[in-house]
Amino acid sequence: MVSGISTRKRSNAVSRSERKDLTRANLLQAALTLMGEGRSFTSLALREIAREAGVAPTAFYRHFRNTDELGLALVEEVGITLRRLLREARKMDVAPRDMLRRSVSVYQDYVKLNRLQFVFISSERSGGSRILRLAIRNDVTHFTHEMAQDFRLRGLYANLPTSSLQMVCSMIVMTMLAAATDILDLPPHQPLLEAEMSENFVRQLKIILFGATRWDEDLAALSAKPGRKDEG
Amino acid sequence: MVSGISTRKRSNAVSRSERKDLTRANLLQAALTLMGEGRSFTSLALREIAREAGVAPTAFYRHFRNTDELGLALVEEVGITLRRLLREARKMDVAPRDMLRRSVSVYQDYVKLNRLQFVFISSERSGGSRILRLAIRNDVTHFTHEMAQDFRLRGLYANLPTSSLQMVCSMIVMTMLAAATDILDLPPHQPLLEAEMSENFVRQLKIILFGATRWDEDLAALSAKPGRKDEG
DNA sequence: ACACATTGTGTATGACTGTTCACTGAAAAG
DNA sequence: CTTTTCAGTGAACAGTCATACACAATGTGT
Predict the structure, then answer these.
(1) Which of A83, A194, B168, B185 is placed for a possible disulfide with B212 were both Cys, Cβ 3.0 to 4.6 Å?
(2) The domain spanning residue A44 has which CATH number?
């Protein structure tokens, strides 16, 4: 029963498990599509998803116990997407002149390419089902940690203590997610608006990175000669 | 019909419009309560809201055309809450030593005091109904602008150009909203966790403020002697 | 005192929901 | 070839939904 390759039918026709995986993917895609039309995940009905996937409502149960379980499967897909993004970022040169700007550009393209998945992240990260929210936040936290690790490995901001680096990365991720919402809401074919958005995005990241280094410097100065005021 | 005070019944009993306002408030509160139990707004049913408010489903129509309209009324309430927060912040001394820390503390208390409204903001700012999302973003933008104006009036970061100040404020607001989610998810009676969260919050704001000033300095230096690298 | 306006109720209706069950047909296994 | 497995079907169920309508109760204006 559980044999990798069929015994008597190595034909070109699709195998049963392949068909199953296909309708499963159709169900996931159907949910994403419906959310892309401005629906929240918790408001999606099982029958509705099945209908969009072109399948009888009862077929849903062959793949997921309920809609929440489908949601978790979606989160898993999202996790893969985020890991791919990191891998893509890792392929970039270490420190060319406009690395930040190029990173932003890569990210924007990535969001537009995986539009529906980012719609899903943005919508459900702070809303609706509790288990979904927690699962997404878990993925995002993981992403943040991996980013910090990449910074370390590449010697970026090597003078920052780990806790500061973690914080910087979490702020970067926060900014990225906020930017994703903007990218998704952007009307298509508006290069001017898009350029302005990119510019803002780059600025925000610069502020964070500059602030982090300077804050660290001030901390060092503070421990050297205490009593200095640290705000204003 | 539209007279401020009843002509013949100035008694202690509640007037008709008072009753109406009360059930209206009950409906709004009911929606917030249901969302506080982890539901997304778009998944709330009219009948459900009416039931929670202790009123017949059909009574709903005396106050709102549909649930979306109730959502917009909630957004209006939220707008008032945000304006109250700004007013409260304005009452603080101009520049005591630990102004930032105190602002954070005030904000945390405010979020906890208006918990359900912040749950609503956090959930619906990026999810579900399009018109609701836009309405909330509008309120948040307004809040950001008012904050920038307050900074100007108090002479804070007076050296920053307006565009930078706007950006700093939008980053502050972004951080505040992210912090709100953390505050809301915080299990009660965990002073250690809460203190750590506050500390992180303060750090993040410092990074933004430091980064903004330094970025501005670097911009000035850049225009003075161009050719300086601006990243690393 | 009387007529009107308005808030809230109860019932009804047709559509949609999640879930069950017995089933079909074809791939997989023997 | 025969048998088994199993993804997908279609009918049926009880429940909830939004909405419409006639109606009741009561504050309000004349």
Answers:
(1) B168
(2) 1.10.10.60
